[in-house]
Amino acid sequence: MALIPATILTGFLGSGKTTLLKRVLTEAHGQKIAVVENEFGDESIDNEILVRDDQEQIIQLNNGCVCCTIREDLRTTLAELAEKKRKGTLAFDRVVIETTGLADPGPVAQTFFMDDEIAETYLLDSILTLVDAKHGDQQLDARQEARRQVGFADQIFVSKADLVDGATVEALIHRVKHMNPRAPVRTANFGDVPLADVFDLRGFNLNAKLDIDPDFLNDDGHGHHGHDHHDHDHAHGEHCDHPHHHAHDDDVKSFVFRSDKAFHPAKLEDFLGAIVQVYGPKMLRYKGVLNMKGSDRKVIFQGVHQLMGSDLGPKWAPGEKKGSKLVFIGIDLPKDVLLQGLEQCLA
């Protein structure tokens, strides 16, 4: 059986997750979607698209999708769904897990890698995060859960952008990109987003693509070339047209390491292993495309918290400039320790 793609939908209370979900479920895309709701609020999918039977934990929606609420834990629910799909008692093509507004998506994502049965049945596609344009700033200021959700994302949607002025939206997008430069940010009004931005994003694929928002790299001395480690506090507002954007000193931050030199494989492996041991809980997402000494192929690694995976990627093309690029997103990570440590792993 082909792996079942799974998407984690997260975002703070009132950010419009249910609206987006409803839109995805009712759109005629010919896919049958199983929605797993991990919500305690009253904002769950409402009755107009449900055929309700309170005895049954799994509810059929009238468009052929199914919906279930997590009673035990996620692992059990996913295993149960997969079992029903295998037996042919339940038809669905993919799963969307809607987390509670207060949830940390980390452990949800880890379920897909830590549990053998789940890992052999499902493919975690991506984490989508909604940020409410009207209350986003305030929520990001007040709640670390909201900041974590942004840090984890593969795709960020700013919802309710029609309720605030353009400058507010701009400032919020700018702020979010500093926390997470690897996730594209799009505005979404009333859940109106193309499905291509929602499904099959391959955010957890070990592929050789490492997109980092170019604004983030140009903003100032973010990309570290060699020993050029200046911190970005914009003390003099240098290279930054919007000094006021940085009024927020968020604990979820990101930084990029780049080098044209090759890494020494054993040194790098030891260093990354040690870093993950020490800082794993604070490391939200990290990914790198690496130039390894003695290898004619790119090495790709990525991780969530303490779980790190790596793989051999494609060969460096003839004439392609070899180099390494890594992005780390985490909570109060010691940037200097990481950058200097990586520097010392270069051959």
UniProtKB/TrEMBL annotation:
Domain annotation CobW C-terminal: ranges: 252-346
Gene3D superfamilies: CobW-like, C-terminal domain (3.30.1220.10), P-loop containing nucleotide triphosphate hydrolases (3.40.50.300)
Catalytic activity, reaction form: GTP + H2O = GDP + phosphate + H(+)
CDD domains xref list: CobW-like (cd03112)
Gene Ontology molecular function: any one: nucleotide binding
Short name of any one Pfam family annotated for the protein: cobW
Source taxon at top rank: Bacteria
UniProtKB keywords: Chaperone, Hydrolase, Nucleotide-binding
SUPFAM superfamilies linked to this entry: Hypothetical protein YjiA, C-terminal domain (SSF90002), P-loop containing nucleoside triphosphate hydrolases (SSF52540)
Region (Disordered) residue spans: 223-245
Family matches, as InterPro entries: CobW-likC_sf (IPR036627), CobW-like_C (IPR011629), CobW/HypB/UreG_nucleotide-bd (IPR003495), P-loop_NTPase (IPR027417), Zinc-reg_GTPase_activator (IPR051316)
GO cellular component, one term: cytoplasm
Family assignment from sequence similarity: Belongs to the SIMIBI class G3E GTPase family. ZNG1 subfamily.
Role noted for this protein: Zinc chaperone that directly transfers zinc cofactor to target proteins, thereby activating them. Zinc is transferred from the CXCC motif in the GTPase domain to the zinc binding site in target proteins in a process requiring GTP hydrolysis.
Name by which UniProt lists this protein: Putative metal chaperone
Protein source organism: Piscinibacter sakaiensis (Ideonella sakaiensis)
